[in-house]
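Good morning,

Attaching, inline, the backbone tokens for the sequence recovery test we're adding to the shared suite. The designed sequence is right after.
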């Protein structure tokens, strides 16, 4: 009966999940995306609360836990199917709890300056300045990540993303198919370093 879905009545031994007590709802949403087909086993906390907490172990009721979800993502190499379903605040909540730079970069939870969620894996990913990106055709080739509001994510961005500065300008110019066209840009940027 607790399993709630008639077509899963035979799955009495399966774990039932509820949103973690006092935890940001982003984690329950992330759990749902990671476990897609098993999302039937995510039950409303009101339903679990009808059972005393001391009996949750016997009923295989567990709380969604940020640490375990992060470990699942790290271990499985799995991505997030629909990052656009997370608000910027939810994306920052998840990123703020990740201490592994590779996982942090791999998840498509970073927000581009146009608001689109993206990964931060590529060479030409930069942290956009607070005032926005200068109008420069070179920067059109780069992925510019918007500065976060959440202080911990802001700190991660400063630590793990390259700033959009003169070094970035040189890097982008030299990575262009015709770097010789950008000789003046490179010389001017070198002069400011």
């Amino acid at each position: 009966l607790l399993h709630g879905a008639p077509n899963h009545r035979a799955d009495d031994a399966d774990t039932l999940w509820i949103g973690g007590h006092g935890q940001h709802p982003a984690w329950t949403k992330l759990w749902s995306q990671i476990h897609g087909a098993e999302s039937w086993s995510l039950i409303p906390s009101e339903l679990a609360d009808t059972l005393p907490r001391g009996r949750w172990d016997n009923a295989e009721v567990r709380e969604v836990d940020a640490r375990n979800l992060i470990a699942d993502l790290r271990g499985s190499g799995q991505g997030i199917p629909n990052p656009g379903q997370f608000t910027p605040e939810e994306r920052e909540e998840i990123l703020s709890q990740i201490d592994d730079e590779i996982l942090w970069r791999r998840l498509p939870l970073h927000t581009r300056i146009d608001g689109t969620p993206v990964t931060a894996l590529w060479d030409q990913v930069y942290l956009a300045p607070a005032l926005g990106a200068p109008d420069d055709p070179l920067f059109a080739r780069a992925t510019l990540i918007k500065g976060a509001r959440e202080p911990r994510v802001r700190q991660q961005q400063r630590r793990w993303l390259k700033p959009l500065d003169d070094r970035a300008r040189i890097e982008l110019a030299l990575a262009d198919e015709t770097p010789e066209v950008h000789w003046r840009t490179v010389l001017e940027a070198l002069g400011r370093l």
